[in-house]
Write a structure and sequence with these properties.
Length: 155
């Protein structure tokens, strides 16, 4: 069996460490669930599909149907630039828009010091906004009164 040079041994060690680190940072939060209160328009079908997505991930969802979501968004600190078609509350966090259940599970597991997370608008391919195989990239932002920053990227 050939001997590895110090250089090759070093590269093998680095590769092993990188693989180990990538596995360590890919946490699985699929067992994290909570009760989710969703505020949405009674005529919005995509919001209903997002509710189904959350229920399929194990969340217990209750819905409040309303034609005026602006007061709810204002009460929970959702700015216009982060707004979407529905607002939800889970474990004290605001969940704005078509956010994947896995991102909500991560939020609830990590418990960062933020008001919530948001997907502005209604990106095609996000949960509830599926149109065949079409997908547009989007960012989930965490936010609080001081602003917003990326929480997750979806491509």
């Amino acid at each position: 069996m050939p001997m590895l040079s110090k250089r090759h041994l070093g590269l093998a060690l680095i590769a092993t460490l990188l693989v180990g680190c990538s596995r360590a940072t890919t946490a699985d939060f699929s067992d994290v669930t909570a009760e989710v209160q969703v505020f949405r328009s009674p005529s919005c079908g995509c919001c209903g599909k997002w509710v189904e997505h959350m229920e399929a991930a194990g969340f217990t969802v209750s819905e409040t149907l309303t034609d005026d979501l602006d007061p709810i968004k204002q009460e929970h600190g959702v700015s216009e630039d982060l707004a979407s078609c529905h607002t939800a509350i889970a474990d004290g966090y605001v969940i704005e828009g078509h956010i994947p259940a896995a991102d909500v599970q991560r939020l609830l597991a990590e418990k960062p010091d933020v008001t919530g997370i948001a997907v502005p608008g209604m990106p095609i391919g996000s949960p509830g906004m599926e149109i065949g195989d079409e997908r547009e990239p989007y960012t989930v932002f965490s936010f609080d009164e001081s602003g917003a920053e990326p929480f997750a990227e979806h491509r």
